[in-house]
């Protein structure tokens, strides 16, 4: 069995963050999002992974590398023909996948636990396709299965009137009949080859489409609030064994709960760090409060400030004497006090599609 990870697209809903970083490299729990997908696949015993990327994409290649750190072999596959839909991503990788069964994993999906039981069920029951389903509050945002007598009879993409409260998550397993189905579907009204049309064609033409419900949490990180929730969920799963303090903590500082602190980081002065929190390497936290569900990247400085339930990228400088919550802060950002300069006020440099609360 092989695996294919979708890591292309332009993530316009996450701009301006994604103007300078590929969405799949956004750090969640201080780890690029795509790393979580690779780890799940590697832990399921799959060693050949293809990653679909945008034409000319360099950054993902550099960050991910050849896969040796996970004991897998990674092949990068540039998307050809433009953004033609999720189903076309698989078609684009046909030469890599060949005749093998394969896991198709949307790289911006975050799930609890492993995919091992999902993969094992496919291997044992031998359907032509296996879907991972999850109950959601807003199924109209997703592909939605219509169920009858415990079987999937149809899958509709983003229906206005969903036939169930299940969503088809971004994790699928197929055999080679995927490509037979693809030859019989056409682009939808939005000009894309829909993955739901693949599933419906297989069902209507006598192929076996099985499913397994994800009983824990699943997160599709399409919006900024989804990223923050994904970060929260991952930090909530951090074990005490993972919560290692490798930096230097001042005796005056208080560290509560599961807190991971990287090498070269210094926590000094009157600090309170309340986990779950992860702090990268070579950071300085001084006279500040770091609240639950916060991830601070490498080289971050937080001086005389408070931050909670936020994701902070590398080399950010926060010294604003304010409480920052529910924030997604990109690389090399500085948050300074408005009272530090004259005239007193809020001096702003804001890119397109930003949101600021004053």
From TrEMBL:
Protein name: Glucose-1-phosphate thymidylyltransferase
Domain of life: Bacteria
CDD domains in alphabetical order: G1P_TT_long (cd04189)
The UniProt record lists the keyword Transferase: yes
Cited InterPro entries: G1P_thy_trans_l, NTP_transferase_dom, Nucleotide-diphossugar_trans
Lineage: Bacteria, Candidatus Uhriibacteriota
Keywords in alphabetical order: Transferase
All residue ranges annotated as the Nucleotidyl transferase domain in the record: 2-235
UniProt GO MF annotations: transferase activity
PANTHER family from the UniProt entry: GLUCOSE-1-PHOSPHATE THYMIDYLTRANSFERASE (PTHR42883), THYMIDYLYLTRANSFERASE (PTHR42883:SF2)
Gene3D superfamilies in the cross-refs: Hexapeptide repeat proteins, Spore Coat Polysaccharide Biosynthesis Protein SpsA, Chain A
